[in-house]
Amino acid sequence: MKNARKQNLSLLLFCTPALIVYILFKLYPALSGVFYSLTNWNGLKKTYDFVGLANFREILTDTYFWNAMGFTFRYVIVMVLVSNVIALTLAVAIESRRRAKGFYRTIFYMPNMISMVIGGYMWMFIFTKVLYYMADNWGWRFLDHSWIGDPRFSFLAIIIVAAWGAVGYLMIIYMAALQGVPANLKEAASMDGANAWQNFWKIVFPLIRHAITICVFWSLNAGFQVFDVIYTLTGGGPGRATQSVALNIYEEAFKGNIRYGYATAKSTVLFVIVLVVTAIQLKVTSRKEQEL
User: Fold this and answer.
1) Closest residue by Cα to residue 171 from 137, 241, 219
2) How far, in Å, CA of 171 to CA of 215, rounded?
3) Which end of the chain is more exposed for a tag (fewer CB within 10 A), N or C?
C-alpha cells in the first residue's frame, strides 16, 4: 500500500509541470473565455458590462458565422477522409517494403516539422507562380486555373496544403499500429488462401482500429481549429468563400470593431459543437472496437 502511494506521488510530481502549464495556458483561458462571452468587453478597456446571453442571441442571426461554420464542416469532412486514407495507404506501402523504410518515413514526415505558416507561404508561391509557369511553358493547361481567386480551386488548394502537412504525423501513428499486428496471423491467412487485400481487410484493419480512432479524433479537432493554412493561402477569400470559424473569430476579436466578448461567445459555441462531434465519433469508434 505504501509503495503504491509512493509510486502515485512520484507520478504526480512528474506530471505537475505539464499540469501547471495546462492549467495556466489551456484551462484558465478557456474558463475565462466563457465568462467574457457574457460581457461586451472589447479586449482593451479594463471596464466592461455584463450582457448575459445577448452575444449568443446575436450569433443565431450572424450569417457570416454560420457560413464559416458550413465551410468548416465541409473542410473537416474532406480533410478527415483524405488525410487518413492517404496516411494509411502510405503506412501500409512503407511497412511492406524490406528496405529504405527509414528514408521514406523521414521524407513523408518532414512537412510536419515545418510550421504551417511557412508551409502556407511556400505553397502560395507554388500556386501563384510555379503552376502558371508550368502551364505556360510546359503546356500543362490543366494547371492554368486561379488556384487562390476561384472558390472551387481555392478549397482544393487548402485541402492539398493541409493534407501535405498532416499526413506524415498520421502515417507514423498508423505505422506503429501496423508493426503491432502479429505476423503469424497474416501468414496463417495467406496460407488459407487470402490475397493481399483480404489479408489487410480481414486481419490487419480490425487490429488497427485503435489507431484509426486516434487519427480520426486528432484530424477532427485539427480540422475544426484550422486557421494557419487558410490565413496564409487565401485569408478567407475570395470574399468570405473560404473563411473558417477560427478565422471568423479572429477577425471579430482583433480586426474592425474588436468585439472580444462577442468573439469569445463564438469560441464557446465552436467548443460545444466540437465537443458534441468528437463525443459522437469516440462513441461510434469505441463501439466498433468492442465488436471485434
Assistant:
1) 219
2) 9
3) N
pLDDT value at residue 68:
94
Bridge partners (DSSP) listed for residue 50: 39
Cell digits for 252?
471579430
| C-alpha distances out from residue 189 to 42, 201, 210, 246, 292, Å | 64, 11, 21, 47, 17
DSSP conformation class of 208: T
Q: Are 154 and 242 in contact (CB under 8 A)?
A: yes
Q: Which residue has the cell 498532416?
A: 166
Helix (H) / strand (E) element for 280: namely helix 260-290
Question: Which contiguous run of DSSP H or E holds residue 156?
Answer: helix 151-179
Q: Would you state the cell numbers that stand for residue 71, as one nine-digit string?
A: 465551410
Q: Model confidence over 116-141: pLDDT tens digits?
A: 889 999 999 999 888 888 888 887 87
pTM, two decimal places: 0.88
